[in-house]
Write a structure and sequence with these properties.
The chain has 24 helices and 13 strands. With 560 residues, the protein is of the alpha+beta class. It folds into five domains: 115 residues, no CATH class; 157 residues, Orthogonal Bundle (Transferase(Phosphotransferase), domain 1); 126 residues, no CATH class; 38 residues; 67 residues. The relative contact order is 0.06. The N terminus is likely disordered.
Length: 560
């Protein structure tokens, strides 16, 4: 992080310190070409990167035009796999971009040329050895699929096992790493140039994306993910995960069992009942989320095959998310609040798992959550509830209050939107909320079980015992600091301002009280003097004036 701070300390330091200035210039040039010149200009990099701008593009109008989404898709597609992946991630973030742009980003596809046969052979030799063909009975040079990160080929092992080889594009890793470095620097500059970007924690978004993409291009991590999924679903007959052949897998080549089957779209085209398969799909997704806390981050229909016996085969496990037990508990609390339309509880739980980026007006936050909840829940049957969209809007609303969600929760929302979208599109008769209910009730029951309570008590006792052991060592140091005057307590500027106003108000009340008491004493004293006044009341004029002044002072203090 210190290196990053040094790089972003000035525009000139950025241009000379970035690892690939040429690539940086290329990225800026592509955005300018597609009508984002005004945006690039706000980052004050024109002189350092030597980019020419069209005068008409130095306005905000081009950035806000109806075709902004299409131009952004064109720019990301031109810039390659890192930006295509970034666009796909951003398409699930309604808290960052307007709906019109999000819709366009969902169209991003990996439009790349397939690897040549020489490139494939070169990668296999580099990763499996010069005699790599000795491991296979046959190898199909024609790719089964080709994407921006890898290409897939069929093969058959010597023992007759049908496999697929996922082969990473050569030279991809340094390009992606360079792009990620540039994106992190750009995020910091955007936050400095645009107040709204700082509130969105754009640097945190890019950092999370960088970590996710770094995992996706290391096939050893994907192999590990697949083995973990296989263990989690070992007792579930209807879910299958490919077996990984570790001796034929590296960070750039992944050899795994061939999973054959039909797509959901093919089953629909045949006129078959698809509902049972979609229910199995939801069972798998909910098990990952609620029971295992380890879920597939990209479980779209293209990564699921329906096999001949009705089981589902799940592939492409490079992108995963993790939910701790406490995070799963809060997720259940959110869903339970949604099912029971308890919007105050929804706001409390949602806020408890969020990360505040500054001081938060909780009352305003709660009001926004309730307003969003009423739009989605008011008078709508649960079977028609679009919970993924609800969560997405809640996340977007939280950003306005300088609150963001943990990265794994954001990925979880994306996964829920994907699964929900599948059901709405191809299986409208399937009720996702009803399928989730058994998992929610199971977790609530488990939470209050004797065993769980015992575990929590043991954990709390362990934490308290650790604190008790540390206290005798820390207390003498604390006393020494206190005696030496080294102990300080920090107070925020907002708190100081509040305390100043409070002190001023107390002083004003004290002065009013003193003046009122003085007027009351003076009024009482003048009663004893033979002064002209109201004959019927026996009250001197001056006494009445003092009493009136004292009464007004008392009324003013009560009113304040």
């Amino acid at each position: 992080m210190s290196v990053l701070r040094t790089i972003v300390s000035s525009s000139r330091a950025l241009a000379t310190g970035a690892k690939d200035v040429g690539r940086f210039r290329e990225i800026a040039g592509v955005f300018v070409k597609h009508g984002f010149g005004w945006f690039v200009a706000q980052l004050k990099l024109r002189r350092e990167l030597q980019i020419d701008y069209e005068g008409t593009e130095l306005t905000r109008v081009a950035l806000q035009s109806p075709d902004t989404g299409k131009r952004l898709v064109a720019a990301f597609t031109t810039l390659g796999p890192t930006f295509v992946k970034l666009g796909q991630i951003l398409s699930t973030r309604p808290d960052l971009l307007p709906e019109s742009i999000l819709q366009e980003l969902t169209t991003l596809q990996d439009n790349v040329d397939p690897l040549t046969e020489e490139q494939v052979q070169s990668q296999l030799r580099a990763n499996l050895g010069a005699n790599y063909l000795d491991h296979f009975e046959s190898f199909d040079p024609e790719p089964l699929a080709s994407a921006s990160i890898a290409q897939v080929h069929r093969a058959v092992l010597k023992d007759g096992t049908a496999v697929v080889l996922k082969i990473q594009r050569p030279g991809l890793r340094p390009i992606i790493q360079s792009d990620l470095n540039i994106l992190l620097v750009l995020a910091r500059y955007i936050e400095e140039a645009f107040v709204e970007a700082d509130a969105m924690d754009l640097t945190g978004v890019i950092d999370g994306f960088a970590k996710s993409l770094a995992q996706e291009i290391d096939f050893r991590l994907e192999a590990r993910n697949m083995e973990r999924f296989r263990g989690n679903f070992a007792d579930v007959e209807k879910i299958r995960i490919p077996l990984v052949f570790e001796d034929l897998s590296t960070s750039e080549v992944l050899c795994m069992e061939l999973m054959q089957g039909r797509k959901f779209s093919e089953i629909l085209d045949c006129g078959e009942d698809i509902d049972p398969y979609v229910e199995t799909y939801f069972d798998a997704a909910y098990k990952m989320l609620f029971r295992d806390g380890f879920f597939h981050g990209d479980l779209h229909p293209g990564n699921v095959f329906v096999q001949d016996d009705g089981a589902l085969a799940i592939i492409d496990c490079g992108m995963v998310g993790r939910l701790s037990r406490s995070m799963r508990d809060k997720l259940v609390d959110i869903l339970y609040a949604v099912i029971n339309e308890d919007l105050e509880a929804l706001a409390r739980t949602f806020f408890s798992l969020a990360i505040p980026l500054g001081r938060v007006d909780y009352k305003a936050f709660e009001t926004d959550v309730i307003e969003i909840g009423e739009r989605y829940l008011g008078g709508i049957p649960l079977s028609e509830l679009q919970i993924g969209e609800l969560f997405g809007e809640l996340v977007a609303g939280a950003t306005r209050h300088r609150v963001r969600m943990p990265t794994d929760f954001t990925m979880m929302f994306k996964a829920m939107i994907t699964t929900e979208g599948l059901a709405r599109t191809i299986a409208p008769n399937v009720d996702p909320i009803e399928l989730a209910r058994p998992y929610i009730l199971e977790m609530i029951k488990e939470r209050y079980s004797t065993e769980r309570i015992k575990q929590l008590l043991i954990s709390d006792v362990h934490a308290l015992s650790g604190l008790a052991r540390d206290l005798p060592r820390q207390l003498p140091v604390l006393i020494q600091d206190l005696q030496a005057g080294r102990l300080t307590i920090g107070t925020s500027q907002e708190t100081l301002e509040f305390e100043k106003h409070a002190a001023d108000a107390r002083n004003r009340r004290a002065v009013r009280a003193a003046i009122s008491m003085t007027a009351l004493v003076c009024g009482t004293y003048t009663l004893t003097l033979n002064l002209p006044g109201f004959t019927s009341l026996g009250l001197p004029y001056i006494s009445a004036l003092f009493f009136a002044f004292a009464s007004y002072g008392a009324w003013a203090m009560v009113r304040k």
